Fold:
Amino acid sequence: MLKTFFKDLIKNKAMLLMVLPGTIWFFFFSYLPMAGTVIAFKQYRYSRDGFLASILESKWVGLQNFKFLFSTSDAYIITRNTVLYNVVFIVLGLFFSVAMAVILSEIVNKRLSKLYQTGMFMPYFLSWVIVGYFVFSFLSTDRGVLNHILTSLGKDPVSWYSESTAWPYMLVLISLWKSIGYNSVVYLAAIMGIDKSLYEAAMIDGANKWQQIRSITVPMLTPLMTILTLLAIGRIFYADFGLFYQVPRDSGALYSVTNVIDTYVYRGLKTTGEIGMSTAAGLYQSFVGFVLIIASNAIVRKFNKDNALL
Amino acid sequence: MLKRRTRDFHQLSPVANALFHVIAASLAIIAVFPFLFVLIISFTDENTLARNGYRLIPEKWSVDAYHYIFQTGDSLLRSYGVTLFVTIVGTLISLCIITLYAYAISRKSFKYRGFFSFIAFFTMLFNGGLVPTYIVVTQLLDMKDSIWALIMPMAVNAFYIMIMRTFFSTMVPDAIIESGRIDGAGEFQTFIRLVLPLSLPGIATIALFSTLGYWNDWFNALLYIDNPDLVPLQSMLMRIENSMQFILQNSNNASLSSGILQNMPQDTSRMAMVVLATGPIILAYPFFQRYFVQGLTIGAVKE
Amino acid sequence: MRIKSKSKKSVLYGLTLLLSAGMVLSACGKNADNGGNTAASNSNTETSTEKPVELIWYTIGTPQKDVDKVMAEVNKYTSEKIGVTVKMNMLDWGDYDQKMKVMTASGEPMDIMFSASWAFDYVQNSRKGAFASLDELLQKEGKGITEVLDPAFLQGSKVDGHNYGIPANKELPAQEVWRFNKNLLDKYKLDIKGVGSLESLEPLLKTIKANEPTVTPFALDKNYVPYVPYDYIIQGLPMGVKLDSTDLKVVNVLETPEMKQALQTMRKYYKAGYVSAEAATTTSVSDLQTAGKWFLDRAATQPFADNAWSSSYGYPVVSTPASDSIIYNWSVMGSLQTISANSEHPDKAMAFLNLLNTDPYLRNLVDSGIEGVHYKKTADNRMENLADSKNYDMPTFSLGNIMLTYLNPSDPDNKWESFKEFNSAGKKAPTLGFNFDSSKVATELAAVQNVKEEFMSALYTGTVEPDEYLPKAVEKLNAAGFGKIIEEAQRQLDEWKAAQ
Structure:
């Protein structure tokens, strides 16, 4: 038994050597700190003898630190908002990123195509604070561009930051605007990596462009799409804080459509700063993601084992 | 000869091509437009801005914002240097670790691929949080106030490993690796000579992401760096920005508001910071774009 | 090709090895280091009579170039006088809170650190055990401090009966004022004599609104809270004790007649256009102030604040009181230096703080830098900045007793006397010295904070109709457990009162 184990090790020694640096890194920067998660079940207080002593001496509080996530009617709103937005982002993001990648790869003039790519990448460099500024210059009640247009059309100006109906659409649009350029790069790279002889063979068979895209490009991208979607599902309980906090300018009137788990936790713990509670919130988000990702991975495995994450 | 033939067949119909141009170009314009504005605002006079709001052609131009930043962050050039070093070294280290790891777990012949995939995957969901990580980096690895504290904590990213693994398993046919084995090449040799050239677009993608990640990182410096000589660009700018915001938010604090608020061109310098921070890195994208090239076929590698 | 790939391979091997070795080594190195450190510090304490002790000092403010240079000078003085040297680390305004939280939570070695009610929260961190209790240390090494400070400072900064920080000797009470853009006052010949209450502003606002369409008459941002005479238990949460009450009854401030009236008035002002339509989401009105496009706002004052404001805006600003001058817990905790719970030398740290708060030479050295380099003295207690002062520009109020510092050319001679007068004129708030312990209601507090953020800015700025939204807010606050928090506060307050 032990002998076969060592034999296996020797047989796989090159591969093991390849994963060694990464494994060491994971040990130090991920698994070792993970032990600190125990704070989620403690009322963390500082001890003068350092961190370990602090953990040991802090009082166990069971699931007390998790309670604030579920205690009020807001619990439903933040969960619903977080999940729904993420589902929309996953679906639309996937569609538009792939579509954009295909379009960019098919455009005949490569120089222009590259220019477009670079352009689309730009929003990635703008922080949410700056994006929030621009959105404000559009939506501001008295000086915003949009209200200028409305009034010049003879309509009443709208107080956008206290009117929640339009915000779900705006947030989705803004999120897509910011992320498409970045996300389509992966798909673009994948398209570039597709073996050209496949297309040549298809052309000899007389397939037109659309058929080629449908029968070669998309299937070749499927594994990547699956993996990225699975990973996105794992983060379905996490929301992009800046998008939901900075862009709507933390306007209370919009909370029904902008309050998500991350903003709720931030607002709730801003004053008390209990690390126990913030760790608990993170653990909750991770745990749900983990369960979801394992479940969806199992489904993917049923269809195609090679495309699965694990 | 081969090239011309592919062109003929490969091309879109003119109508579709035009349509694609319109879609891509309009998206690109929407994406670039705010950036243009950032540039203009950064050169606008603060008072003019406060009076008139954002304008494409401001009433009065000014370089005060840049002046303020160069004055507040007087070691700007040094910070550029730190950022450049961290970005380049960091990306190289990341690439090495990530591609090796991803390649190993992409190989079906690797007995422990499932185990090591899980090791990587798990870290994407669960992490220890700020304080434990801080303790490992400062107390166990003793990296506080060292350039490695800016490099190592970001060196590996399981997300990139998973993408890279997919690239390897879809873009590199098993046949190629087999052919390498028949030639008597070792695993590392096969990897470097046969696999890497085929996965250039994938590697370029990861390199791009990693470069941007390092370039934009400010949080590690906030946590680990006290020495002003080691503060990277983004961190320095972020520090100015955060402090500006903090002071403004506490402006009803009499002690704070009376002295410190003085002469702070806040809107324009915020934009100037964006310009300073992104100007150079925008060039990174075209650089990596060069590797998003088609045409490396199996035949090409074999030759 | 073959050779090349071989060399690549060995490079890769090398890198891998190097990396793993590096990690293991640095881990080991650290351990060895640790051993060395403890040994060194042990021997340090043994020989402390000869060798000065180094204190690590974290304080707030934009890091200054010449800190080390000035500290070298400080060390010359302090090592001789009290056997102490200091290493000062400055963390910028926006970073201080976050970084200090992480560092204290992880047990980073520190000796002295800045704390306040508005950055690296003094009360919370005292309770969490970040600071050493100073009760005995003050007796032993801090005699000078107790002599210098108004007793209200030490009384008001007690947490659960103990002192954890040395408040800076500066303005003690908080007083709100209405500030006016004097250019506009003069232009329309408006008089601010009778102005005091929120309601009394109306005629002035009306004039400005009618004549100056581009000016925001009443500049306010989302943090604005109408002034009502209540002593808030937790900053920002509408729960408090009436200022003139003797029975210390904790009430929901939203349900008080004063607040109801204030909200109605704000609503009236909002509808009349005196307030910006975006006030509820505006984080700062500084753009209005730079452009001079505002007429009045409310701010906290201190002696000679009008001068400071005028010179910082570049046009005259005048003010008139909007509230009484009250000594609150939070105003007492405007700036404190604390001693870390894990400090190896708390007594030395206290000796240093004592010197800092009583010794004019040291205090001015830390504040303004080296004489002849950063500033020059023009009279006994007057100075003038030299060109190099830009490399050492410190926030005076954060570094201890400000009344020892030399006056700037623009300061009046009686500056510190005025501060003392201002301080002695302050009335004590009913809960001065009481600090709420929120740990029993942490869950409710998190939920209540969210409700508060949802409604308060809109209500306080008059953006929404109080008749409709006030009941809604109260109901949702209660559903989130506000009642329980008030009850707990009342219980703790009663206990505290009984113990007085």
Confidence is low (pLDDT under 50) at residues 1-9, 297-303 of chain B. Residues 146 and 225 of chain B are 7 Å apart (CA to CA). The two ends of chain B are 18 Å apart (CA to CA).
